[in-house]
Structure prediction request, 349 residues.
Amino acid sequence: MSSHYKIAFIASLFCCISYNVAAQSNAAKPKPLVKDIYTADPSAHVFDGKIYIYPSHDVESNVPEDDEGAHFNMRDYHIFSMDDINGPAKDNGVALDVKDIPWAGRQLWAPDAAFKNGTYYLYFPVKDKKDVFKIGVATSKSPTGPFKAEANPIPGSYSIDPAVFMDKDGKAYMYFGGIWGGQLQRWHTGNYDASLKTDLGKGHENEPALNAKVARMKDDMLVFDEAPKDVIILDENGKPLLASDSNRRFFEGAWMHRFGDKYYFSYSTGDTHLLAYGVSSSPYGPFTYKGVIMKPVTGWTTHHSIIEFKGKWYIFYHDVELSGKTHLRNIKVRELLREADGSIKTIEP
Ligand code: FUB
Prediction:
């Protein structure tokens, strides 16, 4: 493990030990939903009254760890289905393999899914043959696949962690992006610049943070209907969060849900290991930062999704309870609770 990942991981373990002590009075501790393979980055959806989980499938491939996350060297996706929130999570087998994606090189990272016009769409980030992350789409008539990948990445897509939100009016939006190993910073000027390894680097700390991106999807759900726009997050004074504000700024793992007439944009703060959120009256934002959804879990990465099922809200997330290793994660679920004003109660995992 590289030195700054190592320091952050040890810090997150200490955080988790103290949080776990504080949380001992909490209700039943969530258990890994899947134990026979490693799973992460769970994007959950309710299709036809049933829960479907679209996670990454972590594997040990013995690729040495580096700052760009080369050890997250995943090669396929399995999709899980649950009739009820208390499980079990049924493994529906391999839904898409990297060898069946014509343009893919390596590293199948966090996917998401959507349903429209009788078709299920699986969205996935993977490095192309030049080692540049792009976002692809694959289709199936079944929520569990198998999925068939399109011949090329979505034109105009880049970076990682697609999350597709279907609004009540039937319009769909893709949120995406991730800094550091997710390469978002490399597209800052509009042209790909491989020299930017983590963020914009020294001298940019007091500039606005890099933003996630959002683009409305065309009706066919295969391409963007517009050029991606910035997902701006404002502080309590209406100013964009700064790059140096690592406890609040966007890092990766975007998710969108709607509660009443408000749009909740949630995300991981990466190196500070928090799940945070902001609220807006538009799916495009700007979003006003509201707080922390979940404090650090065991492991380096933190990644989630939020769904409503049978009148209650749930958060799906991962930690490393089963393996103790950053790149071999396991998915979990727990209830998401709100205050009367719709704000989300912080979870101490
Ligand atoms: O699983 C690989 C990457 O780790 C995801 O794309 C990120 O969100 C982080 O969870």
Q: What stands out?
A: Residues 215 and 227 are 6 Å apart (CA to CA).
